[in-house]
């Protein structure tokens, strides 16, 4: 296992990624494709914890902008992440990977409660732990949940999968001359308001010395490249 750069990682997948070409919902083919990639690194012996977003189904902030109570909307957003988690569990199990969905909101018919020590035990046994329902608290995001779970599960890095190749000085979808940063410090990300993860998540990663690797999810083989130490995307560290 010496060729691995990371033995235990936290992979953050946004909900939108699961929607595929549609902007809403869950596209089973897209889920299968990601699950193949995740299964591949799990089979290499990497311990993988996943945090899944819910933005493909519901976002509390967007609903509150249209008059819904923010906390109520946020709980709905957290429930959306549980649906995504179950979809990814299905995809991973089809790949022959053992998984556990652990939810921050009790839902014992479909998931285990999130219990840190139990999550670590699952990881040690080679099971992919799918952390659902974010932090379990409104006014947070699944990015913050990713930083929190990474810290408490002692992962060596947060792998933040995105639609583009890494972090740029401006939006690469809009500006052709956008420059990719191979490396950034946490402070630079915060000061320049670069949209890597929200500021609560970045601060938590900074305080706990957790490197964040931002990379393109849509290029086959990228998760494996990151865990094997290939320098792709952007690394955010101290
Ligand atoms: N959410 C929350 N607390 C958390 C995590 C998520 O209230 O700890 C809610 C929030 O409404 C958020 C929604 O769940 O908008 C979906 O999560 P997020 O927007 O982070 O998903 P992503 O953008 O990664 O798909």
Automatic annotation (TrEMBL):
Keywords (alphabetical) are: ATP-binding, Cytoplasm, Kinase, Nucleotide-binding, Pyrimidine biosynthesis, Transferase
What chemistry does it catalyse, as a reaction equation?
UMP + ATP = UDP + ADP
- What pathway, per the record? Pyrimidine metabolism; CTP biosynthesis via de novo pathway; UDP from UMP (UMPK route): step 1/1
Specify which residues bind UMP according to the UniProt entry for this protein.
Answer: 54, 74, 135-142
* InterPro entries documented for this protein: AceGlu_kinase-like_sf, Asp/Glu/Uridylate_kinase, Uridylate_kinase, Uridylate_kinase_bac
Q: Where does ATP bind?
A: 12-15, 55, 59, 162, 168, 171
Q: Which GO terms describe its cellular component?
A: cytoplasm
- Aspartate/glutamate/uridylate kinase domain mapped to chain residues: 8-216
Q: What is the main EC category here?
A: transferase
Does the UniProt entry include the keyword Chaperone?
Answer: no
Q: Which GO terms describe its molecular function?
A: ATP binding; UMP kinase activity
Complex formation: Homohexamer.
Entry similarity comment: Belongs to the UMP kinase family.
Protein name per UniProt:
Uridylate kinase
Gene source species: Desulfobaculum xiamenense
Q: Which gene carries the instructions for this protein?
A: pyrH
């Amino acid at each position: 296992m010496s060729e691995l750069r990371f033995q235990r990682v936290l992979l953050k997948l946004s909900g939108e990624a699961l929607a595929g070409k549609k902007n809403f919902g869950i596209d089973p083919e897209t889920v299968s494709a990601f699950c193949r990639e995740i299964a591949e690194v799990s089979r290499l012996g990497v311990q993988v914890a996943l945090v899944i977003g819910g933005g493909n189904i519901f976002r509390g902030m967007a609903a509150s902008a249209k008059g819904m109570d923010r906390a109520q909307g946020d709980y709905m957003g957290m429930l959306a992440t549980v649906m995504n988690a179950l979809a990814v569990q299905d995809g991973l199990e089809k790949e022959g990977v053992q998984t556990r969905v652990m939810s921050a909101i009790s839902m014992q018919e479909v998931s285990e409660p999130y219990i840190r020590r139990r999550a670590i035990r699952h990881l040690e046994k080679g099971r992919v732990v799918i952390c659902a329902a974010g932090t379990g608290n409104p006014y947070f995001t699944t990015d913050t949940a990713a930083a929190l779970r990474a810290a408490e599960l002692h992962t060596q890095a947060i792998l933040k999968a995105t639609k583009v190749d890494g972090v740029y000085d401006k939006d690469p979808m809009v500006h052709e001359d956008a420059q990719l940063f191979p490396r950034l410090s946490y402070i630079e990300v915060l000061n320049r308001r670069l949209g890597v993860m929200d500021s609560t998540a970045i601060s938590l990663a900074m305080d706990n010395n957790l490197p964040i690797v931002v990379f393109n999810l849509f290029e086959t083989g990228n998760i494996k490249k990151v865990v094997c130490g290939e320098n792709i995307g952007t690394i955010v560290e101290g």
